[in-house]
Amino acid sequence: MTSEQKGLDIQITEDFVKQELARLGPDASHDWWHVYRVRNLAKSLARQEGLTGKSVHLVEVAALLHDVQDWKYSHSENASRASVQAFLEAQGVSREQKDQILNIIAGVGFKDELGSKGKGETSPELACVQDADRLDAVGAIGIARCFTYGGYFKRVLHDPAVAPRSGLTKQQYTDKSVQQTTINHFHEKLLKLKDMMKTGAGRRMAEHRHDVMEQFLDEFHREWDAEA
Q1: Which burial class, exposed, middle or buried, applies to 104 when counting CB atoms under 10 A from its CB (0-12, 13-18, 19+)?
Q2: What is the CATH number assigned to the segment(s) 3-224?
Q3: How confident is the model at residue 115, as a pLDDT?
Q4: Could you give the angle at which helices 95-107 and 53-65 cross, rounded to 10 degrees?
Q5: DSSP alpha helices (H): ranges in 3-123?
């Protein structure tokens, strides 16, 4: 039986992802447990959206591989595709399956939608993986990840004199020479994600998680201003 017929082995894929994460050394905001949560969320969304069989398997594999050699830590836009492509070819997957996985991974990122007027139709599988990744960036876990990431990159917690940027382009968002605050990251990205969900199930889950972040920010600013 070929890899295409039986699907890419999940355990082999997990082992590869863990190995890549160990080499890259990301902080806890983008570690194995982030990948684990995204995989589980993506599978749940896929089933709620009516996906079955090979589509659910494709969603699971792409979710597992979505952060391999993440550009924020590898400092390379091409490292992720190169690493995942080499892995898939070594596993003997068909060209069709390889292209499907690579296309999902390439389309997941928030940065790639900045300034976009619409990039055409989103496949159901991409929608599930993308929404799952974004759901893990919002709510209580999103808050925890945001401060973990900010601490790792030595971002200032909050500075009232530094206003959040609006209308960010991909180039501005990825420019690490501009040091933004952790609180501003909520306004520049996280609070926007609710309205960027592609699946009905993702939108329903995002509503609650969005409210959690808004309540947190309200309390944060009240305490910052000595009002609470």
Answers
A1: buried
A2: 1.10.3210.50
A3: 65
A4: 60
A5: 3-6, 10-24, 32-48, 53-65, 71-74, 79-90, 95-107
55's CB contacts (< 8 A; 6+ apart) are: 46, 124, 125
SS3 141: helix
pLDDT digits (tens, 9 = 90+) for 169-187: 888 888 877 778 999 999 9
Mean pLDDT of 201-228: 97
pLDDT value of residue 114: 77
Tell the residue number behind the tokens 């894929």, with chain if given: 13
Buried b / exposed e along 75-86 (16+ C-beta atoms within 10 A)? eeeebbeebbee
Question: For 19-69, what is each residue's pLDDT tens digit?
Answer: 999 999 999 999 999 999 999 999 999 999 999 999 999 999 999 999 999
The CA distance from 82 to 15, in Å, is 18
- CA 92 to CA 82: how far, in whole Å? 16
**The two structure tokens encoding residue 77:** 């836009």
* Sequence ranges of the domains in the chain: 3-224
Q: Which residues contact 133 (CB under 8 A, 6 or more apart)?
A: 38, 42, 63, 66, 108
Q: Is the pLDDT of residue 127 over 60?
A: yes
Both tokens assigned to 23: 């080499």
Tokens (6 digits) for 47: 């089933």
Residue 172 near residue 178, CB atoms below 8 Å: yes
